[in-house]
Amino acid sequence: MKVLMYGTHPYEKPYAEKWAQQTQTELKMVDEPLNDETVDLAKGFDAITVLQTASMGSTAVYEKLASFGIKQISCRMVGVDMVDLDAAKANHLTVTNVASYSPRAIAEMGVAQAMYLLRRIGIFDARMNQNHDFSWNETLISNEIYNCTVGLIGAGHIGTATAQIYKALGARVLVNDIAYDPALEPFAEYVDRETIFKEADIISLHTPLLPSTRGMIGEKELKKMKKTAYLINMARGALIDTSALIKALKDGEIAGAGLDTLADETTFFGQTNVAEKDVPADYKELAAMPNVVITPHVAFFTQTAARNMVQIASNDAITIANGGRSRNEIRY
Ligand code: NAD
User: Mean pLDDT over all residues of the chain?
Assistant: First the structure.
């Protein structure tokens, strides 16, 4: 079995090498993503895996893969927006993704940001570094996590992992989800969203970005939150109305925000040396606030997640190449 791994990142290589050794697979890793220019590299291979956000190119790419005898495209990631699913279907290519590679990775980043804000680490750090101010006063007193109520909106894979961690830390955990999962009962209490806005000291968002969730935290919702509450977004930036968030932070409607995603992040997150003119004004404004912490969509980025993305997609690739089925197949 020969597998070609497109768009290989350096951090994936040790996991890919180990997987190839364990499964006795001949694996070739290339840096290039899959597209019209690189599709011919797949000739002579039985299966491919990809990791990219850029389009895979024209329908000729799918036709060529099929003509090489390839039966699948296994994505080492969740999103499959870069795949032309119609072209894949027309060429009998099964597309798989890795929907859940490490919910715990994202959950831990959310909790870490909340703890950072709760204990005012950013504020103390800025005071010490910028003003050589080594003092503290009554405005900087913190709460302890076991005295907090945490409200999670969206309690799927990541929300559930988040609930478990907060519960283990002694917090009261409220969840709001359109679906009910009895497995969450030991960790959390299902409530309506209004209760979360009213009672939570930390609100953490874990829903997908859908027409029904886009902008679900706007001016009205921010006003309903406690003035001492922190808003954490580990899901998608557009769940929050960014200008309403900036206003709420300026007006003291909420205490702070932890964000791993921003609405306009695709233009600059993941890039190096972003030109000053290309850095959005809303990012600059948020980043300048000491009660805001922003990371560039890296909550997923742990060793466990990287290993699982490589292993799960590569296993799917050889299973389908051997005529088998995978539960990670995208149904379309
Ligand atoms: P999931 O599908 O397991 O869970 C999503 C949950 O949201 C489900 O339980 C669903 O019922 C619920 N939901 C949907 N609409 C809702 C609504 N209107 N109100 C309340 N709940 C609603 O997904 P997941 O694996 O937990 O991932 C959640 C999101 O996290 C993803 O969609 C993605 O946007 C984001 N994510 C971020 C990173 C990162 O690195 N920051 C990594 C992976 C995923």
Answer: 96
Cα-Cα-Cα-Cα dihedral sign, residues 107, 111, 113, 114: positive
CATH fold label, 103-294: Rossmann fold (3.40.50)
Note every long-range contact of 319-324, with CB atoms under 8 Å and residues 24 or more positions apart, other chains counting: 320/47, 320/71, 320/72, 320/74, 320/94, 320/96, 321/1, 321/3, 321/46, 321/47, 321/70, 321/71, 321/72, 322/1
Atom 4 in ligand 1: residue holding the nearest Cα:
156
Helix, strand, or coil (residue 75): strand
Q: Which residue among 191, 192, 207 has the greatest number of ligand 1 atoms within 8 angstroms of its CB, and so is best to mutate?
A: 207
**pTM recorded for the entire structure:** 0.92
Do 2-101+303-321 and 103-294 come out as alike in CATH topology? yes
Tell me, in angstroms, the distance from the centre of ligand 1 to residue 11's CA.
25
Q: Which CATH class is domain 2-101+303-321?
A: alpha beta
pLDDT computed for residue 266 by the predictor: 82
Q: What does the pLDDT look like over 252-282, one tens digit per residue?
A: 999 999 999 999 898 888 889 999 999 999 9
Residue ranges of domains in the chain:
2-101+303-321, 103-294
The pick from 177, 204, 259, 265 for probing ligand 1's pocket by mutation, whose C-beta has the most ligand atoms within 8 angstroms, reads 177
